[in-house]
Design goal:
It holds the Pfam family DHODB_Fe-S_bind. InterPro entries: Dihydroorotate_DH_ele_sf, Dihydroorotate_DH_Fe-S-bd, FNR_nucleotide-bd, PyrK_electron_transfer. By secondary structure, this protein is of the alpha/beta class. It is 14% helix and 35% strand. It has a six-stranded antiparallel barrel. The structure holds FE2/S2 (inorganic) cluster. The site of FE2/S2 (inorganic) cluster has 12 residues, from loops. FE2/S2 (inorganic) cluster binds next to loops.
Length: 256
């Protein structure tokens, strides 16, 4: 992980809610950033000085990967704060890449009450490797505009309330692996609801089947402050989202 600087070369408005920022002058250490790894970003001036302390902490950015023009693509919620030519201070890559089972063919992505960006960033990689992808959007995630996603992705929007969607049992049976993301306001509670749902809808939940992608407040991103610690079953040592995560097997995390 390194502290580096890049520049917003272009902004592509993929839909009214989602922008893709193309970062140029990216340090080589970020060329191989993988789905699941993030960047801690702050807008700075051309000398690297912070322009504003709002937000106080760096933002967690989810890169989609490098383009053919050696720019790094990042998905962000639409925000007029971002402009081409801006300099960005970056710390990263933070965390570990997502791990997919060697035999996995069908990947179920599920977002509950939050934007699915931590999940959608893996879709190009999954499709490139000929995996089948279904994206389930529940609660506030139902409002996420998916026009920019590949037509190869099946998108299911849930019922008006809670965790329901049609053919749930079939979805759980079809999936070889599942990655989920929930509203950061109470991740333990919401991941607990999803884990319970999986236990009720699937005959048996194997290890490495249902992963939660955690998004706690990331203060240092280096494993020094423990603000992102998670308690694990059968382990006295907490795991750190910024170092060991962001994805954890929900069977291993103590969600109580
Ligand atoms: S953010 Fe400081 S240890 Fe993870």
């Amino acid at each position: 992980m390194r502290l580096t600087q890049a520049k917003i070369e272009r902004i592509r408005r993929v839909n009214p809610d989602i922008w893709h920022l193309e970062l140029g002058q990216v340090d080589e250490s970020l060329f191989r950033v993988k789905p699941g790894q993030t960047l801690l970003a702050r807008i700075v001036d051309d000398e690297g000085e912070t322009l504003s302390w709002d937000p106080y902490l760096r933002e967690q950015w989810w890169p989609l990967g490098m383009t053919g023009q050696k720019t790094l693509l990042v998905e962000r919620a639409a925000n007029p704060r971002y402009e081409p030519g801006q300099h960005i201070s970056l710390i990263g890559p933070v965390g570990e890449p997502y791990r997919f089972g060697q035999r996995a063919k069908n990947i179920l992505l599920l977002a509950y009450d939050t934007a699915p960006t931590p999940l959608t960033v893996m879709i190009p990689w999954l499709l490139r490797h000929s995996l089948n992808v279904t994206l389930v959007l529940l609660g506030r995630a139902r409002r996420y505009n998916t026009d920019h996603l590949s037509a190869e992705v099946e998108v299911i929007r849930g019922d008006d309330d809670g965790l329901g969607w049609p053919d749930q049992v079939m979805s759980f049976g079809w999936a070889d692996q599942m990655f989920t993301v929930v509203s950061p306001d109470d991740e333990l509670l919401r991941f607990g609801e999803l884990r319970q749902l999986a236990l009720e809808r699937k005959v048996a939940i194997p290890n490495h089947f249902i992963y939660g992608v955690f998004q706690p407040v990331t203060v240092c991103g280096t494993g020094a402050c423990y603000s992102c610690a998670l308690r694990m079953s059968g382990s006295a040592r907490p795991h750190l989202t910024c170092v060991d995560g962001p994805a954890f097997d929900l069977l291993d995390v103590r969600l109580d």
